[in-house]
């Protein structure tokens, strides 16, 4: 079986290794600079060839302290494989759910790995929400496909040891947790079996890890459990080169999970980690016992080990550039071994030989990074704008700076993997930048910057990947200097060239994010040695508060078609509704026609609208009046907005995701909104809404005719609330709105005087006050995860089930992700229970809705997942929330 250099190109193109070129890793971050201590740590890591892969289910499941310890103390290549991207969770920092939340949590994981020194990988599993058992999980995930993805990452990364976060016996609580452990055990065996998933062997070889462990902890250990059979290590040490303990690094890493509210305090001192052996060769004292982590793993590697040792001994922290000559010699040794292994011979190129090639490529990549770090070399390529249309020319500002005393000649700068001659040949003088602009064009075949796992429709349990993704085909059109004083020719002679990076579906698996849409190659001569460096083209801007920020260059369609986010159009009668469609130009001079696609019998006025957008980023909003079919039955359908330009149809909008702790991301959602025809009556008109962690419920209430006023916590007084028919409290408000501690008496006073309060789910841990209602209740993590779990009406005649809408079993059909969450486990008898339901095999839960009279008014707590169902356009959810807001008004006709 051949060694596939194309697969290796994701880490370091083989031709680049042989010509002393380096790939940068960062695709959308502030360019990395290295301290002297970090360089020394990198030098030491060159002499460690071991690898470990940590496996769990979600973002935040990983043990950041252990990852920090393994990556920075043991100097191992340390990866975290998360089965999912966390799409099914809740969002503490904003309104994004599902795909948007998955993108946020992906970026939070990448930020965590940049902090703790690990690498990040994923499978195609879709986080469909809480699951109570692995059996349920595997009914929704394609188990064989997730296993194949896990095997692929293992074969690709070749870890010596696998570590799971969770046990296989269910103590992890979440069905996804247990499923990840079961899959890890199966993947341990399958990765080394060439008969399993043989299609992968076109790119990688079978690989058998030496051991599999479960990383236990105090929250898993049963009372009185004997831990004698566990290995243990102290991961709480201090790294003087980094100036931090691993507990401190771990806290900073974990605190990147802001969407989950996981800001963590640092720990210092001893921190024991326990490991239960599960598979593989036994070990008595250490996870890596008997595993060679030295250059003896590579035939001829002793010379490299000695060279690295000499570099470490001679390293001068005050003058890192003194190590550059030694690094070039080291890379020459690596190159010689790599070339020797690629020479055809009578001996088949199999087994360890291929493993050695991958090790050599990885180490060459590390050497190249260290050369740039020792030189203090800074190369940036920044686009003038954040968004570009494929086929359109963009201006890129390139700045090259040598901050060492070494003699460097800048020979050429070109588009990604293009080797045209710029006849530059200019010295990079210490501290004096060479700056110029380049005109680059991304080929028309390159698609939008939609995350690769969102380009095709997904199932509930799995993301579907395209056959391949053309992520770069760059054509460099022209160059000119920004300042002639830099000595760069005003109009250098260039030859246009093209190159491709087109990962196949197999090669996409595991990748945390898209490859860069555009990169620049700078070719230099460093004291007689040839050296090249790739850098991604990014967009840079300066925020007045946060300072200099970088984000990925995004490829957009010529026109973007945006509908209001997370909005359902709900028709309780046959009156038309306004549907605003906002067009945004991806380039100047876009003309076409805009129309809505509607179900049979539905109409829009106007039917078609011509448009012209003269300038890039210009926006135009068109209001359509949508008239439902007079004969349409209650139910759910959808509308789609489509713009036709030059015969091509476009129906994707643009959704920026902007938070200060991650690079700005862009999604390109389909311009589709639910249409809901529902038989609905309501009482009351004015609703006050207190936002908690963020949701789309207020807009859903407006859709059914309520006047919704967003109130801030200081406005929560009985006098102010008196003018409202109800106060609706958003999800997790009692976890996130600290002011509720002081305003709760006013809310109770409002209820006592005749008000109506509906509180949506509250997480059991971390409430801002002990009691969130007028009477005691104990919150829990109980939930009903089966969306269509049968519902029993405990009090069929209760007004909440009958006024103003008759609630039936049909109203609980078609729900998404889960029926409800964080139900109280106990409550005061003054609360009435209204419905009960439960997951298969479990006792039904009765606290999905608790209703209490208090004075002249009413209090309702509900764990029903209305925050998901209303934006999804579930008719029954609208009828339920209407009855809750109308509660107590049945006698006021």
Automatic annotation (TrEMBL):
It holds the Pfam family PIG-L. Signal peptide: none annotated. InterPro entries: A-galactase_NEW3, Class_I_gatase-like, GlcNAc_PI_deacetylase-related, LmbE-like_dom_sf. Residues 591-645 form the Alpha-galactosidase NEW3 domain. One of its GO terms (molecular function) is hydrolase activity, acting on carbon-nitrogen (but not peptide) bonds, in linear amides. This is N-acetylglucosaminyl deacetylase, LmbE family.
């Amino acid at each position: 079986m051949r060694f596939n250099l194309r697969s290796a190109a994701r880490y370091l193109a083989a031709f680049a290794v042989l010509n002393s070129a380096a790939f940068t890793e960062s695709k959308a971050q502030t360019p990395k600079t290295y301290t002297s201590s970090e360089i020394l740590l990198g030098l030491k890591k060159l002499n460690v060839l071991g690898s470990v892969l940590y496996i769990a289910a979600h973002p935040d499941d990983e043990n950041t302290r252990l990852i920090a310890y393994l990556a920075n103390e043991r100097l191992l290549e340390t990866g975290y494989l998360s089965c999912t991207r966390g799409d099914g969770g809740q969002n503490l920092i904003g309104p994004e759910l599902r795909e948007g939340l998955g993108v946020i949590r992906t970026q939070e994981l990448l930020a965590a790995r940049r902090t703790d020194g690990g690498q990040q990988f994923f499978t195609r599993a879709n986080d469909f929400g809480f699951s109570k058992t692995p059996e349920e999980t595997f009914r929704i995930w394609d188990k064989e496909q997730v296993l194949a993805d896990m095997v692929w990452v293992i074969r690709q990364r070749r870890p010596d040891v696998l570590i799971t976060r969770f046990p296989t016996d269910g103590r992890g609580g979440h069905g996804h947790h247990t499923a990840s452990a079961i899959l890890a055990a199966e993947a341990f065996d399958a990765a080394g079996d060439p008969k399993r998933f043989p299609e992968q062997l076109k790119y990688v070889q079978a690989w058998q890890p030496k051991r599999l462990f479960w990383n236990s902890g105090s929250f898993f250990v049963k009372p009185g459990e004997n831990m004698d059979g566990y290995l243990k290590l102290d991961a709480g040490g201090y790294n003087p080169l980094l100036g931090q303990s691993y507990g401190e690094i771990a806290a900073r890493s974990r605190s990147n999970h802001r969407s989950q509210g996981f800001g963590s305090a640092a720990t210092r001192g001893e921190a024991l980690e326990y490991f239960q052996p599960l598979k593989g060769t036994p070990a008595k004292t250490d996870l890596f016992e008997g595993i060679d982590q030295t250059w003896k793993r590579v035939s001829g590697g002793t010379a490299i080990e000695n060279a690295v040792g000499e570099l470490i001994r001679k390293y001068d922290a005050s003058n890192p550039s003194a190590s550059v000559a030694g690094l070039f010699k080291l890379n020459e040794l690596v190159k010689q071994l790599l070339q020797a292994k690629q020479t055809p011979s009578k001996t088949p190129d199999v087994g360890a030989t291929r493993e050695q090639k991958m090790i050599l490529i990885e180490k060459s990549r590390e050497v190249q990074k260290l050369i740039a770090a020792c030189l203090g070399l800074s190369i940036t390529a920044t686009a003038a704008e954040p968004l570009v249309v494929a086929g359109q020319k963009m201006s890129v500002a390139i700045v090259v700076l040598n901050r060492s005393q070494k003699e460097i000649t800048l020979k050429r700068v070109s588009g990604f993997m293009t080797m045209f001659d710029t006849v530059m040949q200019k010295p990079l003088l210490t501290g004096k930048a060479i700056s110029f602009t380049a005109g680059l064009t991304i080929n028309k075949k390159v698609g939008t910057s939609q995350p690769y796992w969102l380009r095709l429709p997904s199932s509930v349990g799995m993301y579907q990947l395209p056959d391949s993704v053309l992520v770069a085909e760059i054509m460099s059109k022209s160059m000119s200097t920004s300042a002639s004083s830099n000595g760069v020719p005003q109009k250098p002679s260039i030859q246009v060239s093209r190159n491709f990076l087109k990962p196949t579906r197999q090669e996409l698996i595991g990748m945390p994010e898209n490859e860069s849409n555009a990169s620049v190659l700078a070719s230099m001569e460093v004291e007689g040695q040839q050296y090249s460096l790739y850098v991604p083209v990014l967009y840079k801007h300066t925020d007045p508060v946060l300072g200099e920020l970088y984000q990925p260059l995004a490829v957009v369609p010529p026109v973007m078609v945006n509908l209001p986010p997370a909005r359902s159009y709900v028709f309780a009668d046959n009156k038309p509704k306004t549907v605003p469609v906002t067009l945004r130009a991806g380039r100047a001079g876009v003309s076409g026609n805009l129309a809505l696609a509607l179900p049979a019998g539905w109409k829009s006025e106007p039917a078609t609208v011509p448009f012209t957008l003269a300038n890039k980023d210009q926006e135009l909003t068109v209001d359509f009046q949508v008239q439902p079919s007079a004969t349409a039955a209650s139910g759910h359908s959808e509308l789609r907005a489509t713009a036709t330009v030059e015969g091509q149809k476009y129906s994707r909008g643009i959704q920026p995701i902007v938070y200060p702790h991650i690079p700005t991301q862009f999604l390109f959602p389909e311009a589709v909104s639910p249409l809901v025809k529902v038989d609905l009556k309501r009482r009351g008109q004015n609703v006050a809404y207190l936002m908690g962690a963020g949701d789309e419920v207020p807009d859903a209430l407006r859709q059914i005719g309520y006047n919704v006023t967003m109130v801030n916590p200081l406005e929560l007084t009985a006098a102010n609330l008196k003018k409202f028919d109800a106060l609706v409290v958003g999800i997790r408000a009692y976890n996130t709105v600290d002011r509720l501690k002081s305003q709760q008496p006013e809310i109770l006073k409002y209820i006592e005087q005749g008000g109506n309060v509906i509180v949506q789910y509250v997480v059991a841990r971390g409430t801002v006050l002990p009691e969130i209602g007028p009477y005691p209740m104990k919150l829990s993590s109980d939930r009903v995860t089966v969306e269509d779990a049968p519902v029993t009406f405990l009090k069929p005649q209760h007004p909440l089930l009958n006024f103003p809408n008759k609630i039936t079993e049909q109203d609980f059909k078609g729900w998404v992700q889960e029926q409800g969450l964080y139900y109280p486990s106990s409550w005061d008898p003054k609360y009435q229970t209204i419905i009960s339901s439960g997951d298969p095999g479990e006792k039904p839960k009765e606290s999905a809705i608790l209703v209490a009279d208090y004075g002249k008014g009413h209090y309702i707590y509900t764990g029903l997942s209305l925050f998901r169902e209303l934006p999804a356009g579930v008719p029954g959810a609208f009828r339920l929330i209407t009855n809750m807001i109308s509660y107590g008004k049945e006698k006021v006709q």
